[in-house]
Structure formats: C-alpha cells, structure tokens
Amino acid sequence: xxxxxxxxxxxxxxxxxxxxxxxxxxxxxxxxxxxxxxxxxxxxxxxxxxxxxxxxxxxxxxxxxxxxxxxxxxxxxxxxxxxxxxxxxxxxxxxxxxxxxxxxxxxxxxxxxxxxxxxxxxxxxxxxxxxxxxxxxxxxxxxxxxxxxxxxxxxxxxxxxxxxxxxxxxxxxxxxxxxxxxxxxxxxxxxxxxxxxxxxxxxxxxxxxxxxxxxxxxxxxxxxxxxxxxxxxxxxxxxxxxxxxxxxxxxxxxxxxxxxxxxxxxxxxxxxxxxxxxxxxxxxxxxxxxxxxxxxxxxxxxxxxxxxxxxxxxxxxxxxxxxxxxxxxxxxxxxxxxxxxxxxxxxxxxxxxxxxxxxxxxxxxxxxxxxxxxxxxxxxxxxxxxxxxxxxxxxxxxxxxxxxxxxxxxxxxxxxxxxxxxxxxxxxxxxxxxxxxxxxx
Length: 441
Known about the structure:
Elements: E1 4-9, H1 13-25, E2 30-36, H2 40-50, E3 57-58, H3 61-64, E4 73-76, H4 84-93, E5 96-99, H5 107-120, E6 124-126, H6 134-144, E7 151-159, H7 162-171, H8 183-186, H9 189-199, E8 203-211, H10 242-247, H11 264-273, E9 290-297, E10 302-308, E11 315-322, E12 325-330, E13 335-340, E14 346-347, H12 360-374, H13 386-404, E15 410-411, H14 412-440
Parallel strand pairs: 1-2, 1-4, 2-3, 4-5, 5-6, 7-10
Antiparallel strand pairs: 7-11, 8-9, 8-15, 9-10, 11-12, 12-13, 13-14
C-alpha cells in the first residue's frame, strides 16, 4: 500500500471534516500536499492540519490546477455550482478525481463530466457514500442472493431531522436552489442513487410533489425577532432556537459548522452576526421542506420516496417488497430484518463501523484510494463512478421538473436525450468558436 497524494479544492465542512480528517487519521494512505480555499482562516487551519507551507496554499482552484499536475488525485469539495470547472480541468490534467455530491445542478454539466472521465481515461468518483456503508451493502447482498425474489416495490424515507433542516436548508449554505441545488438533488441524490442501485434497472418515469410549507415569514409566531439573539419572545419554547442548537448544546457537533472559533465567545458572536443566528421564519430560503417522488423502472417495478425536514432524528428507513419476501431496514439503528414468505423472520447481523454516514465516508475513501492504486483509470469504473451517478442525477432532475410542473409524469430517457443533445450542441459551438478565434488571430 503506497501513499496517495492529493490536492484539496475546497476546505469547508466536507473538505476538512471528512476528506481532510481521513488524511490525518490514515497518513500512510493519503497525504494532502496542497489546498485551494478562498477563505483565509480556513487556509490557515488547513496549513496547520496538514503541515503545509504558504506555497502549498492557494486562494482559488484556478491557481492550484495549473498546467502542472502536482499530486495523484484531486478532491473537489466546493459548493455545488463550483464543481464543474475544476473537475473538467483536473481530469484534463490527468488527475483521478473524487467529487462531492451532487455532481452539478446542471444536467448538461453532469453529462459533460461523465464524458470527460471517459475521454481522459481517469477515475471520477462521486461521493454517494451510502453505497459504501455496511447497512446498504448488506441489503444489496441479500437482494442479490435471491432471498426475496424479484423486486416489485420499494418504499424509502429520508428523515432530514428538524435541526438539520433548520441548519443546512433554512439558515445555511443550501437554502436557495438558484445558488446551490434543488433539495431533491442536493440532499436526496443519495437516495435516488440507492434506489437505482438496489433495483439495478433504468428508471423510466418519475412524478413528484413538494413545497416550502412551513419555514415562511407568515408562519412566524407572534413576538419573533429577526434573530434569536434579539430578545425573541418565543425563543425559549422554539425548537429551532439557534441559542439552544448551537450555544447551549452539550457538544460542538453543529457549532463547529458555524464558526472556526468554537469558544463560548466565538459561538455567541457567530449567532449575533452570522447567518446561523437568524430566525428560521425570517430567512431568505426557498428550497422545499418536504417532497415525495414516485418512480417506475424498466421491468415495471416501482419505488416511492419521501423526504421530510420534520422528524425528531436524522434517519433513513426502507421497505423492499419482492415476489418471495420482504426486507425492512432502519439505517441509523443498523437494523435489517428479512421476512421470507411462509417462514420465520431473520434478523440480519451487521458490523457497525465508525464515521459519518454509517461508516460510508471512510468506506468511500478506502475504495477510491484502492482504485487509484490499482490504476483502474477507466471512465465508467467504480461503485459510484460518474457513469453510475448519471442515472440518479437524471432521476432527481426529473423529480424536480415534475414538482415544478404540478406532478406531471416525466420520461427520464427523453430528459436524458434532450440534455445530451444540448451538451453536444454546446460543445460543437465552443469548438467552432475556438477555431474561429484561432483563425482571426
């Protein structure tokens, strides 16, 4: 096992607390040799975390991804709408790439990135971490054993958690779809990916409903203020109180995401002046807080998915109904029960792993580095390659189109064909423009 070197593009929450943390925990496997991050404070923290000098720190991806390749892999964990350009440049330079999900909120860019992975013969692994968890891996294994026969229908739920909803999608970085991604893509492309993987067929049709129902100014209780710190009359009773979630919490699990200074004074200042101290009813959010999606697959099997920001915990549950049996699972409890028809129920044992997403974060990193060492640099390979992720992204795009159209059924292949043609047309235009420019010069 030889050490893989990496450039880290984006040193925010995922960059520092997942990919960077893996390098610190397993230095014999991964070494970060350069970081690109526009925030000066985060760059300084990266220098301390990974032992970097000033000439290994960059303010932008353009600076770090120059004409010279300086590491084995590029880990890209920028904001959603900043994935495309650095990914395309890294692939062109010969980097194997680990890309934070979603690939992009633009279908054309998603298709382009998958094509670029094949063109440059490089790995492009998308961080659909659920596939790497013991929980979902075991469910996939049971399905492939034939224990429940052919899949007829799946019911899946993502319980976002009321505090996570408020943190990330009301107050936080992903609260406006035009700046990041629609909720079904940003938060639930994991779930679209899992459904696609378990059924192992192309999704043919999608319909969806959802809205921003609760976190609106007209739903604010009497006596609320613009910030929880400004003497709100109902702050003590409000479950979304920023003071309760961040300042009075027993641990810094959530406060570490709102400030790099997690002292009491630092947290208090972040709530007083930063976005996370705002009242949830007086933010600039527009992403949905609940959504349902219905899907049909090639064989006629179906799946239904529910995402809700109104749950007491962060969890995922699933019910998989087959011709010979049924599987029920609760991810956060690592509980899987097989119900073979006409026989006794069987509890499936699981090995519990540490780390985020039920061990999926570390599982993703291990598998990606293993592929890099093997030299399997062929576009399309890998458990969560760009090619595999394209299907789940198309499902999410179709769901959002259906939701915006009032629940109309969207044919996924028609959506794919339209954007594939658009991508080809755009590429042809760019090539023609470049050629014309060269002639003029």
